[in-house]
């Protein structure tokens, strides 16, 4: 099967974004190109509610530019959607018609409910969460959705966004006490019309879009956070309030120099955060969780997987996709090591107090331990660590991504300490022991298929007199290499588990 490419264009109220997705020959998906242009469409509406002609010209130029990028990549299909600024414009039909005629692209103008649904789809397919509120603060609107048991329950779209509120209330990007009070009153009055928003307190507030991403980047820069990823980043209410009050009096020309804050977000971040905080209080949420995926991702899943766009297993899909992106790893060998590692884990885990999610760490690490071979076979463990840490393994926390990377590349405790040194602030005191315990299981499982022939059909595991006895039913192939490799890893294994593994072939 040939590669297939899909372009997604999101004409937002604040910016216009392109993402080009590729489906590789073996079924993996990845983004191969992307672009973002600030547009501020919602700030360019005249007194008659019409988008100004010069902004329509700018929009058409951007759309033509994106169409050429897609053509360069031989993109088979382009899906372009527009949100609040065009949806609410009095001349929206004219805009859609001109883009069709002058850029050759058809625009879907999404309703507020459709926008919320696609945003939810992008979030639920990339985070391992079961319930909460989802919020997307755009330039000209804000969408709020309630979901339970990973299913969308109810959504609403309000015509309040960071750009239009900044336009009306924020002078030079700052908010006076009077302006803040006016903004909060407006949000309160609007939200009051939707009584259901106050019926389910005590849930996390999950944010997608530029406002919450900017918040997380500011916090990470300020705290020198060790992990370079905003997706699945948690922020407390008190920390958000602290950053908001720091930003509020700073004029835009000074604010855009703050570490972590992009220049095209500097003049609207305060209004966006004011809306976010007000809604957080109204919903009586527990904490903020940042989602790096959103509308474009939801549109991708909806377009590519039309029959079943919502994933049942976020982490499982992510692991398979990452494996398929690195097909140099011998799949039969990896599957065998994974099978043996999970069998060893199930037998050994009752002997130690391991966290409930250790099962997922073991399964993930033993599925990805060889992906580094796509860079260099001789140093594949080091490269596997890098790829796992720097890939989007959806369904794991930042701490868990480091744990899985360290388990997958485990080669002894001294090397482990060097490897995780820059991430120590993320890890708990006991994590070094967890990595060692699971890393030695993976080492042993890999040793049991060192010839990569999958000779062991069934493995019987028992313990006696300090030994972990491994009786292997084979396909007839000798296990001399595997026996030697088991002996090679036995010292590290014994230190971790206080058992010496011994490979034997039963006599019949």
UniProtKB/TrEMBL annotation:
Residues 25-302 form the Ppx/GppA phosphatase N-terminal domain. CDD domains: ASKHA_NBD_HpPPX-GppA-like. The keyword Hydrolase applies. The keyword Transferase does not apply. Pfam families: Ppx-GppA, Ppx-GppA_III. InterPro entries: ATPase_NBD (IPR043129), GppA/Ppx_hydrolase (IPR050273), Ppx_GppA_C (IPR048950), Ppx_GppA_N (IPR003695), PyroPPase_GppA_Ppx (IPR030673). Residues 331-465 form the Ppx/GppA phosphatase C-terminal domain. Belongs to the GppA/Ppx family. PANTHER family: EXOPOLYPHOSPHATASE, RETROGRADE REGULATION PROTEIN 2. This is Ppx/GppA family phosphatase. It comes from Paenibacillus terricola.
